[in-house]
Design brief:
The structure is a single chain. The protein has 316 residues and is mainly α. It has 2 domains: 64 residues, no CATH class; 197 residues, Rhodopsin 7-helix transmembrane proteins (Rhopdopsin 7-helix transmembrane proteins, Up-down Bundle). It contains 8 helices and 6 strands. Helix 4 packs across helix 5, helix 4 packs parallel to helix 8 and helix 6 runs antiparallel to helix 8.
Length: 316
Amino acid sequence: MSVQLPLTISIRRSEVENLFLPNDYSDNDILLPLNISNIDWYLISSSDSQMSLLSPPTFNYFTSINSTTIISSSSSLARPMPLVKALPVAFVLSSIVVLCICGNILVILSVFTFRPLRTVQNFFIVSLAFSDMFVAIIVMPFHIVTHILKRWIFGKIFCQIFVTSDVLLCTSSILNLCAIALDRYWAISDPIQYARQRTMRRVLLMIMLVWILSGTISIPPIIATMLGSSELQNFNELQCELSNNKAYVIYSACGSFYIPAFIMTIVYAHVFIATRKRFQERAKAAAKLAKATRTNNNQASPTDMTIVIFIVDIQV
């Protein structure tokens, strides 16, 4: 059956609670009037005593329960932020975005224009600055708009690009921090040997590996979309979020957060231990040197006096 004309349906809780609503659904969450048009899969048959719904639809404005969906007036239909509140929020968040962009641009320019900073290890900082700068340019503005309007307004195609860019750039930022931690650890644990091994080629290979790993974590949803699979897609008219597919969530969370966090924790613990050990060795060496200096001074004083007396005797 096809309904081509706009149709307004008011549904009372008592008529559908056994079909759609969970047992703990409150009376305040009442099904609202629906404005429906061009529906080929919604069949309504009613009588004086009851209304039955066949082949229930899946609206993107609803909270999904299996293949059936319902409206919650308190949560699902989030209203845009009031203008009085939206203006200061937009100003503050936009200021943060501008500061983030300008700050990272200054970091990049400092490394490339100030010769003392143009060292091999600082290219890790440049890669990190690029990641954070593009997060501020590509990701943060759309998050601000979505936060204020309480819905995604940029379409499905850009949703995929947005989510992929978000995961790619945030993951690369974290992995760049991981690469910096490893670089510091190698420089402290074996400074002489690593100083010879830390070449521009090696640093660029590490940076390239960081971005490749970030890509392998962020690209699967786009590949799934191109192949027509819906398992890694999580888009509707209200939200644009990362897929809630369990396998992909575990894969992306481990690759972009848990494993790098574990590596950085272990590496910085070793850096702390190595640095503390080096300071202790330097303190012991300084104490030995001071003790040896005092001993030499004490032994040298009588000799100097004897020489002076001997010279005086000769002159007399």
